[in-house]
């Protein structure tokens, strides 16, 4: 018997901010993912940007997402920074796209989808990224 395949979803900045605002779609996706025993990925660069943008009154909601048993926060180390830099090659706005590129990197490396409100931006970084667009 083969073990079940690990699966999950990568949250981009818009999904994390939506979670903190308690928007229905990001909440539904996160709870369904966790409820089925799958993984929620919040890339470190996305978390960094979210922490800067989440109002103080919603930081406990962000902490709840990060504290869920199936939430992981992949680091942005030297190797991943090089991969992300490769995704950003030629983009004059590379500094503004770091969190998007980290989400794309995590999704592509896992063959998972990204929950996002900026699918065209993510696809500009990597045409084959699977994007679940927040309505």
Pick out its properties.
135 residues; 5 strands; alpha/beta; single chain; 5-stranded parallel sheet; globular
Secondary structure elements and pairings:
Layout: E1 8-11, H1 13-21, H2 24-35, E2 39-41, H3 44-53, H4 59-67, E3 71-72, H5 78-88, H6 98-110, E4 113-116, H7 119-125, E5 130-133
Explain the overall architecture.
This protein is α/β, with parallel strands linked by helices and 135 residues long. The chain has seven helices and five strands, in the order E-H-H-E-H-H-E-H-H-E-H-E. It has a five-stranded parallel β-sheet, sandwiched between helices. Helix 7 links the parallel strand 4 and strand 5. It starts with 7 loop residues before the first strand and ends with a strand. The mean pLDDT is 95.
Content-based structural category? alpha/beta
Give, in order, the helices and strands.
EHHEHHEHHEHE
Instruction: Kindly estimate the percentage of residues that lie in beta strands according to DSSP.
Output: 5-15%
Work out the radius of gyration: 14 Å
Strands of the largest sheet, in order across it? 3-2-1-4-5
The rounded distance between the terminal residues' Cα atoms is 39 Å
